[in-house]
Each structure stands twice: as C-alpha cells, then as structure tokens.
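If you are new to this repository, start here. Below is one unmodified record pulled from the training split, so you can see the exact layout before writing a loader.
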Amino acid sequence: MTHVGKRIVKAREGVDRVKLYPLEEAVKLVKERAKAKFDETVEIAMNLGVDPKHADQMVRGVVNLPNGTGRTLRVAVFARGAKADEAKAAGADIVGAEDLVATVQGGTIDFDRCVATPDLMPLVGRLGKVLGPRGLMPNPKVGTVTMDVAAAVKASKGGAVEFRVEKAGIVQGSVGKASFDEQKLVENITAFIDAVSKAKPQGAKGTYIQRVAISSTMGPGVKVDPTTVRS
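And here is the target side for that same chain:
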C-alpha cells in the first residue's frame, strides 16, 4: 500500500476529485494549496479526443502566454553572420553554427529552447536524435525555424510555450507560477486552452477537449469545466 504523506492529505482536503470546477475557482484552489518552500509551477493537462498515431490527428503548436511563464529560459540559436548578430542583440544566450553543433554532439545542452535559421537546418538535422527526445528540435510549425530570429528569441523569452499531444492523447504545459495573481493565471490558462482548441486536427472525431485539469508542482490536480473557459 502506498503511503500518502500528511502534506499531500492536507492539500487534497476541500478538493472534490470528481467535480468540474469553474476555471476561476479551480485556480483559487490550486493557489491555496501551493505550500512548498519554492515558487511552484502551475501546470495544465488536457485529454483530447485524438489518436496521435494517425498523422491527421496530430496536435502541435505554440502559444504566447499573455503574462509569461515566470521562468527565465535559456535560448540557443543556430545562425551565421548577420542573423547571429540579430539573435545576440535580441537576447539569445547561445549562438553558433558548426561550433554549437559540436558542443551539443559532445553532450552539452545548456539551453531550454532552440531556434534555427532555415539554411542551417541540414546541419541541425544531425542533432535530431539528441534534441528530439528532449523536445528541443527546431520546427517551422512552432516558429523555431525562421529567418526572423529576433522575434523567435523574444517570444521564447517572453512566454512562448510549445505543446504537443502525447501517445495517450494528452497535452501538457506550464502556464505560470503559483505566485501569479489569480487573474493572470486565468488569462494564461485561457490562452493555452484556446490555442489547443484552434489546433484541432481535421481527423479529430467526437468530443475534442474531453478533460482539463490544473495543478501546482506539489499540489493535487483540480478538474476544470471547459465550458467556463472564455477566450
């Protein structure tokens, strides 16, 4: 039998694990139960009516959270010449081409997000087995393969969150910090759900958004009534 600690038991008090809460109430419950000694991340999980094994049911995209993520991301950019200079001016933490590829191949991945100019993708493609499993591979569908490297860097630094459906039809993402006020979290969550909704694939059948839940890093999950989310 799994032992459940006193802190977890106390955090679960007052949360009905079956009830669907209005978004504002769900956010309040999550914030009230974020009692860790660090600023917990608020996360969202959405169960979608898709089977990602089929190409026409894949869900992927990026959302710019209106109030940011509360995290400071380290951004790497694969670029040369003027585009490398643009990336540095925009605040990129690491910029390079062949040298950066060699660094990553050597096992050093000191960044949270990766951007590349289209001309360097044949080079970056060699890193697919390294960056892919970590969700770091640049992709034009989410704006990380682009000539406008300055905009991509600023978006990454300012609250851009990528999402991709997992095998079980679940999309997850970070939508802020427990220290954010309730309205900012509501706005971020609404933006995330709206982006996933707009990314509905043509092959999806039946109910697309089936379940939504939010939680803090150390807190219990709180189910959200999707009909109360107003974009």
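Two things worth knowing about this chain: The radius of gyration is 19 Å. The chain is about 30% helix and 20% strand.
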